[in-house]
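I need you to check the entry underneath: sequence plus fold tokens. Let me know what the token row says about the fold.

>
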Amino acid sequence: MKTIKTLLTILLMAVTLPAFPAQYMRDITVAADGSGDFKTITEALEAIRAYMDYRVTVNIKNGIYCEKVIIPSWLQNVDFIGEDAGKTIIRCNDYAALNNMGTFRTYTVRVDGDDMTFRNLTIENNAGRVGQAVALHTEGSNLRFENCRFLGNQDTMFIAGNGSTLEFIDCYVEGTTDFIFGPATAWFEGCTIHSLANSYITAASTPREVEYGYVFNNCKLTAAPDVTKVYLGRPWRPYAATLFINCEMGPHITATGWDNWRDPANEKTARYGEYGSKGAGGDTSARAGWARRLSDKDAAAITREKVTGRP
């Protein structure tokens, strides 16, 4: 009899309990000073239901969040909205040589989930000039970054995930060497790309079967005052694809523009090109002969919708 009563109690509890834990939230506020729902972004992630079919907004108040953030693959449909891009800062200082962790563990923020928006945030790796030190590492797809700042030195931004597509709108990216690298397809619109040293901006590793790698549209390429020799890109893998369309380039951009990464064979496979470059570094008359100069028709056919596959 006692056993029957126990079973009935368990069944009753199963019927009356909610379908998901009460801590799952759709609108979350993170504030470092304790005035929000959580003090850290990592804590807030635990309050988001896995594989949900509704959107969740994480509002992040001004402050410096010294944490290593991993947004897992089972989260999607999330908007991370900072209060002010210059004052809402996520920061970490890991670097490749630290405890031999290697480049791909140095990220400040790693995004493995899909269908997310990030707005008004600074993502920074402040390790300094100590070698590879990633600020943003993405593996997810359909990611959109608006009015964000990505601060670092070597390897600031690793945009990975074969077949992944990303958008960077009105963002600021700074670094020294190969500071935008990886195999993803990414559309940069109205962004400022700032070089901190004489080196290379991009190091795409676009797979052979992927049509587009990085497309910079209406962007501005700037540099620190002492920087005088910067290449638009070099191929991390043979079929690297990078295009600059209607971009303003400062005098720091080299006349040749592109580098083969010490391998002439890359000149036969890398897919590099420009259209409508302007500014002191925008003269394409002396560019590397193996890089394309897009025609009006070619350039007109390259749209955000076509590159990202999103309306």
Q: What stands out?
A: The radius of gyration is 22 Å. The helical segments are 2-16, 41-45, 296-301, 304-308. DSSP finds four helices and 26 strands in the chain. The mean pLDDT is 94.
